[in-house]
């Protein structure tokens, strides 16, 4: 009987160890899918591509006309009309709410306009699960309407190996443009690329939109969404946060959601930022 009990205890211990050692973490799953790619998606897309040489000249004429009209509409939708939209000439503010009213842009700036600005932000990412991380963001504004933005995510997850962690590094490199530049509200888009480091070492394209509304005094609300594709897998990011501004720095608290291949990650984000 004692021998049978020992065997049961041994089998139970082996089962626990096997679950801890071989259960794949979410981060490891994301990395494996990014490395392998989604072959089914690639094959489907390749099979959907077809061409036809039977188009008539009249069809080509109307197709060209439609394409030119779409390009015209798209240009003014994404860039704006500087002949009729006065807000596009608003100056870059030294920092948001420096006068208690203006946000990132100022329509009544009487002093010399701000020629360039550097915005830095760092947030700690927390969740009830075993995954946590950090999000560092740098936004360099060499002009009042164009900017360069870099986002660096570092994620960690406790895996089944004793004292072991899985980790993932995600980078975003984007060119940004603020399409709407009002004093209390701005909205724009970003275009660039993504890159996952570690043992993945693969990159892809990225597009996004972002907005910020300034409530006056010390508060603002901001949100951003970025969609990307690496090796036929989705790599998406969403963030929404409340900011409390004090002179040229601020504190922030909000929510962040990441989708890296199939796994998704949800975080509470707290941090601070500063404007130079």
How does this model look, in words?
Mean pLDDT is 83; it is low at 4-22 and 40-56. The protein is α+β, with helices and mostly antiparallel strands and 276 residues long. It has four helices and twelve strands. The protein has two domains: 58-89; 90-275, Porin. The protein has a ten-stranded antiparallel β-barrel with strand order 3-4-5-6-7-8-9-10-11-12. Strands 1-2 form a two-stranded antiparallel sheet. The chain has helices at 2-22, 26-36, 39-48, 57-78, and strands spanning 91-92, 105-106, 117-126, 131-141, 146-158, 165-181, 185-196, 202-216, 219-230, 233-246, 249-260, 264-275. The longest helix is centred in the N-terminal third of the chain and has 22 residues, at 57-78. It is globular, with a radius of gyration of 25 Å.
What are the SSEs and their pairings?
Blueprint: H1 2-22, H2 26-36, H3 39-48, H4 57-78, E1 91-92, E2 105-106, E3 117-126, E4 131-141, E5 146-158, E6 165-181, E7 185-196, E8 202-216, E9 219-230, E10 233-246, E11 249-260, E12 264-275
Antiparallel strand pairs: 1-2, 3-4, 3-12, 4-5, 5-6, 6-7, 7-8, 8-9, 9-10, 10-11, 11-12
Structurally, the number of domains stands at 2
Q: How would a textbook summarize the main sheet?
A: 10 strands, antiparallel, barrel
Class per helix and strand makeup: alpha+beta
What is the count of β-strands?
12
The CATH class of the largest domain is identified as: Mainly Beta
Extract low-pLDDT stretches.
4-22, 40-56
Task: Evaluate the radius of gyration.
Answer: 25 Å
Report the principal-axis shape.
globular
């Amino acid at each position: 009987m004692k021998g049978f009990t020992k065997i049961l205890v041994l089998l139970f211990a082996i089962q626990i160890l096997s679950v801890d050692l071989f259960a794949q973490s979410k981060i490891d799953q994301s990395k494996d899918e990014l490395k392998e790619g989604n072959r089914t998606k690639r094959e489907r897309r390749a099979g959907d591509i077809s061409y036809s040489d039977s188009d008539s000249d009249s069809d080509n004429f109307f197709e060209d006309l439609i394409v030119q009209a779409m390009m015209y509409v798209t240009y003014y939708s994404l860039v704006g009309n500087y002949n009729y939209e006065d807000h596009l000439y608003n100056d870059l503010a030294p920092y948001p709410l420096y006068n208690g009213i203006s946000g990132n842009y100022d329509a009544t700036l009487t002093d010399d306009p701000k020629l360039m600005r550097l915005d830095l932000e760092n947030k700690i990412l927390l969740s009830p699960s075993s995954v946590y991380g950090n999000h560092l963001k740098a936004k360099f504004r060499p002009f009042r309407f164009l900017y360069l933005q870099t986002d660096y995510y570092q994620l960690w997850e406790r895996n089944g190996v004793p004292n072991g962690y899985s980790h993932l590094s995600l980078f975003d490199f984007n060119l940004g443009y603020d399409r709407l530049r009002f004093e209390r509200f701005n909205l724009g888009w970003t275009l660039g690329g993504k890159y996952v480091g570690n043992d993945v070492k693969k990159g892809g394209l990225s597009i996004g939109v972002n907005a910020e509304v300034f409530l006056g005094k010390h508060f603002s609300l901001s949100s951003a969404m970025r969609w990307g594709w690496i090796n036929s897998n989705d790599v998406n990011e969403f963030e929404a946060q409340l900011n409390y501004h004090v002179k040229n720095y601020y504190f922030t608290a909000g929510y962040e959601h990441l989708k890296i291949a199939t796994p998704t990650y949800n975080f509470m984000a707290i941090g601070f930022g500063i404007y130079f």
